[in-house]
From TrEMBL:
<keyword id="KW-0547">Nucleotide-binding</keyword>
<feature type="binding site">
    <location>
        <position position="21"/>
    </location>
    <ligand>
        <name>Mg(2+)</name>
    </ligand>
</feature>
<feature type="domain" description="tRNA nucleotidyltransferase/poly(A) polymerase RNA and SrmB- binding">
    <location>
        <begin position="149"/>
        <end position="211"/>
    </location>
</feature>
<dbReference type="GO" id="GO:0005524">
    <property type="term" value="F:ATP binding"/>
</dbReference>
<keyword id="KW-0808">Transferase</keyword>
<keyword id="KW-0548">Nucleotidyltransferase</keyword>
<dbReference type="GO" id="GO:0000049">
    <property type="term" value="F:tRNA binding"/>
</dbReference>
<comment type="function">
    <text>Catalyzes the addition and repair of the essential 3'-terminal CCA sequence in tRNAs without using a nucleic acid template. Adds these three nucleotides in the order of C, C, and A to the tRNA nucleotide-73, using CTP and ATP as substrates and producing inorganic pyrophosphate. tRNA 3'-terminal CCA addition is required both for tRNA processing and repair. Also involved in tRNA surveillance by mediating tandem CCA addition to generate a CCACCA at the 3' terminus of unstable tRNAs. While stable tRNAs receive only 3'-terminal CCA, unstable tRNAs are marked with CCACCA and rapidly degraded.</text>
</comment>
<dbReference type="Pfam" id="PF01743">
    <property type="entry name" value="PolyA_pol"/>
</dbReference>
<dbReference type="InterPro" id="IPR043519">
    <property type="entry name" value="NT_sf"/>
</dbReference>
<dbReference type="GO" id="GO:0004810">
    <property type="term" value="F:CCA tRNA nucleotidyltransferase activity"/>
</dbReference>
<feature type="binding site">
    <location>
        <position position="140"/>
    </location>
    <ligand>
        <name>ATP</name>
    </ligand>
</feature>
<dbReference type="GO" id="GO:0042245">
    <property type="term" value="P:RNA repair"/>
</dbReference>
<feature type="binding site">
    <location>
        <position position="91"/>
    </location>
    <ligand>
        <name>CTP</name>
    </ligand>
</feature>
<keyword id="KW-0479">Metal-binding</keyword>
<dbReference type="GO" id="GO:0001680">
    <property type="term" value="P:tRNA 3'-terminal CCA addition"/>
</dbReference>
<keyword id="KW-0692">RNA repair</keyword>
C-alpha cells in the first residue's frame, strides 16, 4: 500500500502557487483495508474515503471506461493491482497528472513538468474526448493561469472542438455546468474562459446569447474581475440584457439571476443617473428595495460601472447619495400621526420624493 499526493497540489507547488486543497491516491489497497484503518467512505459506489483525522480525500487508484453519454457516463474499476500510472492517465491535463511520494519525489509519467515550463494546457490521452465536462475545465484552467502565460495546446483545442461538435455538451447537467462556469467567473481572468469556449465552438452551444456581442460583455467581465467583484456582479456583466433563458438553462442561483435581470432592465438608468428626474429616481430605488436590500443596489451600481469602464463613475456616488437621502426619511412620525396601510405607504413615498428633490437640488 502506497499513498501519493496527486493533481492540483503537486501542480501548484511546482508553480510556486499557494496549495489549498490536497488530494491523495492510494495504490495497492482494498476497500476493506481503508475501512480497517478508520477511513470513512464518501459514497457506497465510489472508491473515495475521508481521512479519520484531517478529513482530506483519499481515493483508491482506479481506471475508468466510457459507458454512456455525458460526464457521468463512466464505469470505474478500483483494485489493488491498478498502478499509479494507470490512475494518472485518466486525468484531464498533463499538469494535473503528476504525483508526489512522501519523500517529495515527483512521479511524472506524462511530462506534466515539461508542459508547466512550456506554459501549455495539454490533454493526457485521447480519452480526454470522452468527457464533455473537460471542455469547461480546460477553459477554466486557461482563465486561472492566463496571467502566467499558459495557453491551450493546439491538439487539445482540436479535441475540445470535436467534443463541441459531437453533441456531448448537451448531456451536461445544468448544475454541473454552473459549478464550472461560476468557478471560472471567479478566476483572475474570467474573460479567457469565455474566449476559449468560443475558440473551440462550445460557447455557441452552451451560451449562444453571449457568443453574439461578446466583446462588450468580455470587457465588462474583465473589469469586474480586475476590481474583485463578487460572482453576482460578474455574472450580470456577462449576461446583461439577455433575459431569462440563460439563467434558467443553468439553474443560476436566485441572487445572480435577480441582479442580472435588474442590470439588464435598468442599466440605462444607471448610466443616465445624473439626469434622472426625482420621480424616476424614486421608482428606481423602490424597484431595488434599497431600504431592505442595500447590497443589491450597490452591486447594481458596480455592474454599471464595470460596463462603462470609466476611471471614475460619478453616477455611482450620485445614486448612493440618493439612496441615503431616501433611507433617511423617518417612518415613525408618520405612524405617530395615525397613518396606516395604504395612507402610510403613500405618505412615505411623498416624503421620500421630497427628500430626493432636495438632494437633486443640492447635487
Amino acid at each position: 500500500m502506497q499513498i501519493f499526493k496527486v493533481g492540483g497540489a503537486v501542480r501548484d507547488r511546482l508553480l510556486g502557487q499557494a496549495v489549498t486543497d490536497i488530494d491523495w491516491v492510494v495504490v495497492g489497497a482494498t476497500t476493506e483495508q481503508m475501512h480497517a484503518l478508520g477511513y470513512r467512505p464518501v459514497g457506497a459506489d465510489f472508491p473515495v474515503f475521508l481521512h479519520p483525522r484531517t478529513g482530506e480525500e483519499y481515493a483508491l487508484a482506479r481506471t475508468e471506461r466510457k459507458s454512456g453519454r455525458g460526464y457521468g457516463g463512466f464505469v470505474f474499476h478500483a483494485s489493488p493491482d491498478v498502478t499509479l500510472e494507470e490512475d494518472l492517465v485518466r486525468r484531464d491535463l498533463t499538469i494535473n497528472a503528476m504525483a508526489e511520494d512522501d519523500h517529495g519525489n515527483v512521479v511524472d509519467p506524462y511530462h506534466g513538468q515539461a508542459d508547466l515550463e512550456a506554459r501549455l494546457l495539454r490533454h493526457v490521452s485521447p480519452a480526454f474526448a470522452e468527457d464533455p465536462l473537460r471542455v469547461l475545465r480546460v477553459a477554466r484552467f486557461a482563465a486561472r493561469y492566463a496571467g502566467l502565460g499558459f495557453k491551450v495546446a493546439s491538439e487539445t483545442l482540436l479535441l475540445m472542438r470535436q467534443l463541441s461538435e459531437s453533441g456531448e455538451l448537451q448531456a451536461l447537467t445544468p448544475e454541473r455546468s454552473w459549478k464550472e462556469i461560476s468557478r471560472a467567473l471567479m478566476e483572475e481572468q474570467p474573460q479567457v474562459f469565455i474566449q476559449v469556449l468560443h475558440d473551440c465552438g462550445a460557447l455557441e452551444i452552451l451560451m449562444p446569447e453571449v457568443a453574439s456581442g461578446g466583446e462588450r460583455r468580455l470587457f465588462a467581465l474583465q473589469q469586474a474581475a480586475r476590481h474583485n467583484q463578487p460572482l453576482t456582479v460578474r455574472w450580470a456583466c456577462l449576461v446583461q440584457g439577455l433575459g431569462k433563458a440563460i439563467n434558467e438553462r443553468f439553474k443560476v442561483p436566485r441572487d445572480c439571476q435577480e441582479l442580472a435581470m435588474l442590470v439588464g432592465q435598468h442599466q440605462g438608468d444607471g448610466h443616465g443617473a445624473l439626469e434622472l428626474a426625482p420621480e424616476r429616481l424614486l421608482e428606481l430605488l423602490q424597484r431595488f428595495d434599497v431600504y431592505r436590500r442595500p447590497q443589491r443596489f450597490e452591486e447594481f451600481i458596480m455592474a454599471c460601472a464595470m460596463a462603462a469602464g470609466e476611471q471614475g463613475y460619478p453616477q455611482g456616488d450620485y445614486l448612493r447619495g440618493a439612496a441615503d437621502a431616501a433611507r433617511a426619511v423617518a417612518v415613525k412620525p408618520l405612524v405617530e400621526a395615525g397613518l396606516t396601510g395604504q395612507q402610510l405607504g403613500e405618505a412615505l413615498k411623498a416624503e421620500r420624493l421630497k427628500a430626493l428633490q432636495a438632494f437633486k437640488a443640492k447635487a
